[in-house]
Amino acid sequence: MNRDAMQQAWRLLEASVVTYRGTPVGTVAARDAETEALNYDQVFTRDFAISAFAFLLDDRPEIVRHFLATAVKLQSHERQLDCFKPGEGLIPASFKVTDDGAGERLIADFGEHAIARVAPVDSGFWWLLTLQAYVRATGDRAFLIDASVQQAIRLVLDLSMTNRFDMFPTMLVPDGAFMIDRRMGVYGYPIDIQAQFFAALCAAAELLDATDPANAPYRTALDERLPHLAYHVRTYYWLDLPRLNQIYRYGVEEYGPASVNKFNVYPDSIPDWLMDWLPETGGYLVGNVGPGRLDYRWFGQGNLLACAAGLATEAQSDAVMQLLSQRYDDLVGKVPLKLCFPALEGQDWRILTGCDPKNRPWSYHNGGNWPVLLWLLTLVSQQTGADELAERALHDAERRLVRDDWPEYYDGRHGRLVGQQARRRQTWSAAGYLVACQLLERPERAALLRMGRPVEGASCAAVTAGA
Ligand code: GLC
Fold it and tell me: Is pTM, for the whole model, over 0.85?
């Protein structure tokens, strides 16, 4: 750990703080003087979660409480029948403070002002995870059991747990509705969201006040859902060499509960790159599972969140860490961590991204490296006893982050180039680095960020009994 780098990261984080009527309420996404701000001057819910962890680990919970309360105020309370308004319970993707002369006002963005108008599926989940860490750090039960906070939790659950056109315990989401907020072929059941969904539901189960009768049906629903979700992801998303071999020899067009190939996946859809790339030992959770579809791409955030929250079993978490160390250059690279591997190229890129130049192969979401994920890599490394991996990654990253002024992401197969359109002074790059340093310095503090709870994966009725 490099003291100068840490000091620089703290300065950056502190300078990014946004106040509302004199009170700190969040951090802007980036403070790059060279590039147009676009919406990077807003407080993003997902970006702030990482700042919140850094502040909490540093015993500075005030800003986090103000952020949490602000998000509760901004949460959508519109009835659902108007398709142009955000659904009830939605937490904004971002907000900003404006002043047109009549005093400061908060303006929330639920996706209406973002590219392609995608509503954020992950904001409510990040809010819950931030709340969980805040309560752990402070023991502030008065804030937690305030009626508005308890209701906000229930609204997030209403929005995300209610059955819609769906038969799985996982959650159906559109493309671009989370950290990967542009079209990337991640519609359906992306692992990034399933892992976060699991972690957030576990958080909700811990945070709902057990003495409030209004919470009883929610607590029951959570107890029922979590084992199904765990079983589904552990079973159908898991990929290692024996499993790949099973898929390679799958029978197809099987009907009924006894079918082995539940999603009717055709072996011909196994991509060429995978056969030789997958090591003898080690494994990971694939990117997406749906009808006739396994997306074999590796997604860093989903896999690490699944390990951190105990959605992946202990053996699976160990195997993920083995994969990371055996394919270090591909998945960790010069600056950690690959968001998605491998990149979509050629016709796949044209069709699945809609020829998006920002997501050219090995850039941005499409195979770029994101330093923000350092915190998660460190957390999981510590949990699985693979500390050296995190230390190596951090050591490789910090020199570059300082030299390059804290870029948002890096490009190239091994993440050697500053991202083509990356912002500099990106707040969550500094915050992700700081959380990693704080965890390495004081490993006992990891308890504050502990996610999930022990869940035995029950067999999934919808799938095992399905036709
Ligand atoms: C980009 C990222 C998104 C992030 C935002 C602000 O749009 O894709 O995940 O929240 O920048 O940093």
Answer: yes
For ligand 1, pick from 47, 95, 183, 301 the residue to mutate: most ligand atoms within 8 Å of CB: 47
Q: Could you tell me which of 339, 284, 287, 294 has the C-alpha nearest to residue 317?
A: 284
Report the distance separating Cα 190 and Cα 177, nearest Å.
10
Q: 27: Cβ–Cβ under 8 A, 6 or more apart, which residues?
A: 13, 16, 17, 18, 43, 47, 48, 51, 427, 431
Distance 215 CA to ligand 1 centre (A): 33
Tell me what the pLDDT averaged over the chain comes to. Answer: 94
Cβ atoms 214, 154 nearer than 8 A? yes
Query: Which atom of ligand 1 has the smallest separation from the CA of 40?
Result: 6
Under a CB-based contact definition with an 8 Å cutoff, are residues 29 and 44 in contact?
Answer: yes
- Pick from 51, 125, 181 the residue to mutate for probing ligand 1's pocket: most ligand atoms within 8 Å of its CB: 181
Q: Residue 324: give the domain boundaries.
A: 3-464
Ligand 1 centroid distance, CA of 181 (Å): 7
* Index of the ligand 1 atom closest to the CA of residue 29: 12
* Pocket residues: Cβ below 6 A from ligand 1: 29, 40, 44, 46-47, 179, 181
User: For residues 185 and 296, is the Cβ–Cβ distance under 8 A?
Assistant: no
- Tell me the per-residue pLDDT of 196-218, one tens digit each, with 9 for 90 and over: 999 999 999 999 999 999 999 99
Cis peptide before 337 (omega within 30 of 0): yes
Which is nearest to 43 in space by CA: 95, 2, 6?
A: 95
Which CATH number goes with the domain that contains 157? 1.50.10.10
Structure tokens given for 302 = 């989903």
Question: Looking at residue 461, what is its pLDDT?
Answer: 46
Q: Which residue's alpha carbon is at the smallest distance from atom 2 of ligand 1?
A: 179
What residue's CA is closest to ligand 1, atom 6?
Answer: 29
Alpha helices, DSSP H, located in 16-146: 45-57, 62-74, 123-138, 141-144
Number of domain units in the chain: 1
Question: Each residue of 428-445: pLDDT tens digit?
Answer: 999 999 999 999 999 999
If you measure from the C-alpha of residue 110 to the centroid of ligand 1, how many angstroms do you get, rounded to a whole number?
14
